[in-house]
Sequence to fold (204 residues):
Amino acid sequence: MSNWILGLTGGIGSGKTTVANLFAAEDVTVVDADAIARELVAPGQPALQQITAHFGPGVLNATGELDRAALRRLIFADEQQKQWLNQLLHPLIRETLLQRCREASSAYVILMAPLLFENGLDRTVQRTLCIDVREQTQIARTCQRDGNSPELVQAIMASQLSRAERVQRSDDRIDNEGIDLDTLRERVRQLHITYLALSAQHPQ
Ligand code: ADP
Fold:
């Protein structure tokens, strides 16, 4: 059981997943906020039933899964509907995340969330680390990874905190620009030593 949580964040394509995998290689449990958000609306989950009851069966695709694009279209221009959805999902996601963090057996736990600050999850963690690269690099790496258009990546970036504000609000930062995987691994190892010391001092 661990109750020292590091919030890991960064804009799309900054390298969060890459860094999370390096911490996982040091035996740190990583709890992925996006993965949990998807799990909670999987077929058979109560939240999906509530969403379908509220918005109608049009939010499901032919195989009974949530059609995210359809839901996004419904809430896009409707602040009230968006709020309804957030009020349903945010407490549920938060509760599930914290439960998973508490269940972890590593010395400390990483809560990985692209929208850590945007969704107020920073208030549930002991320390924050952001992965930082230039916007151009975010776009180039994301397009290469997903084959998406630069416009789509830019639209996602516009819905996220600005780079400057994210860095300013984080305790620690990894500059993931122009460094290879070995250098990144070294940086993660240094931080891991710091976090082990901090978590050991933290009252259980
Ligand atoms: P995020 O989870 O923040 O969206 P990823 O960890 O998936 O970002 O990284 C985005 C892309 O950039 C991936 O294809 C990853 O392999 C690559 N990448 C990450 N760090 C570096 C780096 N230091 N140099 C080059 N490419 C990198």
